[in-house]
Amino acid sequence: MDTSYHYLLNLAIILLSTKVLGLLTRKVKMPQVVGALLAGLLLGPAVLDILTETEFIHKTAEVGVIVLMFCAGLETDIQELKKSGKASFVIALIGVLVPLAGGFGVAYFFNRPGMIDSDAACSAFLQNVFIGIILTATSVSITVETLKEIGKLKTRSGNAILGAAIIDDILGIIGLTIITSMADASVNVAVVLLKIVAFFVFAGVIGVLFHKLYKKWSEKAERGLQRHVIIAFVLCLLMSYVAEVFFGVADITGAFIAGLIVSSTQRTKYLASRFDTLSYMYLSPVFFASIGLKVELPAMTPTIVLFAAVLVVVALLTKIVGCGLGAKMCGYKNYQSLRIGVGMISRGEVALIVASKGTEVGLLGTNFLGPVVLVVIITTIITPILLKPVFKRGPAMPMPAGEGLSEGFEQLSRIQDREDREDK
């Protein structure tokens, strides 16, 4: 049998299973992205072992998350993002420090003789700090897809989550670089920090130049709108490539900034509709399924299971408390702070990448990999489940469908519209 075309079968299975499970999760009032994540988990090595992550799936998933973040940038209100800039930094900073301390504390208690033996090459102190570094990670792609699905991406809370997640990504890179430099002398922290600063300077210059040229061109071009999609996609891919290869910043950060650059042009709605179709039909299902396909659960002793349970609880609470506290300090209301905290819970593929890097340099023992994987699975699945109800809390609660437009209903609608504008 010719196996060179198995990628077509794999792709068909992924698209069908993610859609079927997505519809089932929607039936029980959960976002469809939960179904896509479950599809990958069920099909992968952790459960049925029908599919494994191939190079094709991996690369397609990478393009998928890049397009997803580009769409998030495309649909972001830049003025609102500027307003939440300082708040986003505070939210991200506290949302990194609290999980770092929580992860270190849990690892410090369990990572010792008589509890869990570690085969990692580095000192126990560095190993414990690294567990904390893993918990600081945030996979904003899961949150973005969920907020888009429930129509809350452009709210004030949604913008704060996006801004904080980008800063969280930068802080995570810095933290990972520092800890790996202690384990690997070839990594220079100062060079990494300089590259990060240089990237944002570069992005600012490119953004201004591209925006001016693109705006002039788009105002003259009344026909052939397809070319606008190609140009926007080229910018997205180039910014992702440059960010990752030349500056050591995550490719999704480059994609998000590319989306921001294009977002203020008059073709934004047209571009967003085209990229949403591409993402919905092909790229996003593969990306979310690929997260589940990465999961492999090793054998775990009762002590390791206990450690995993405690680590999961700490992972959930530290992001909610840390990011929520940061939001509260910046003047957000209680329901908005809760939304922001929940939106930052998911660790997703980001934590898996960090864990993989730690394993390579001797910062994470094999006995601790299983609990980390469990944290990734649970936080990734629970985030979209929790986001929907927390975004129903507060004044943005949608009105029941099918109600008659009575005088009381109209009055309540006017009140809610006013409060919705306050949240946006």
Automatic annotation (TrEMBL):
Q: Which GO terms describe its cellular component?
A: membrane
Q: Does the keyword Transmembrane helix apply?
A: yes
Coarsely, its chief localization is membrane
Instruction: Report the InterPro entries cross-referenced here.
Output: Cation/H_exchanger_TM, Na+/solute_symporter_sf
Pfam short name (any one): Na_H_Exchanger
Q: What are this entry's molecular-function GO terms?
A: antiporter activity
Q: Which UniProt keywords apply?
A: Antiport, Ion transport, Membrane, Sodium, Sodium transport, Transmembrane, Transmembrane helix, Transport
GO BP terms: proton transmembrane transport; sodium ion transport
Question: Region Disordered: which residues?
Answer: 401-424
- List, as start-end ranges, the regions of compositional bias called Basic and acidic residues: 415-424
Q: Does the keyword Aminoacyl-tRNA synthetase apply?
A: no
Domain spans labelled Cation/H+ exchanger transmembrane? 17-392
Transmembrane spans: 6-24, 33-51, 87-109, 129-147, 159-183, 189-210, 230-258, 278-297, 304-327, 368-387
The record gives the membrane topology as:
Multi-pass membrane protein
What is its subcellular localisation?
A: Membrane
Regarding protein family, the annotation reads: Belongs to the monovalent cation:proton antiporter 2 (CPA2) transporter (TC 2.A.37) family.
User: What is this protein called in UniProt?
Assistant: Sodium/proton-potassium antiporter GerN (CPA2 family)
Species assigned in the record: Murimonas intestini
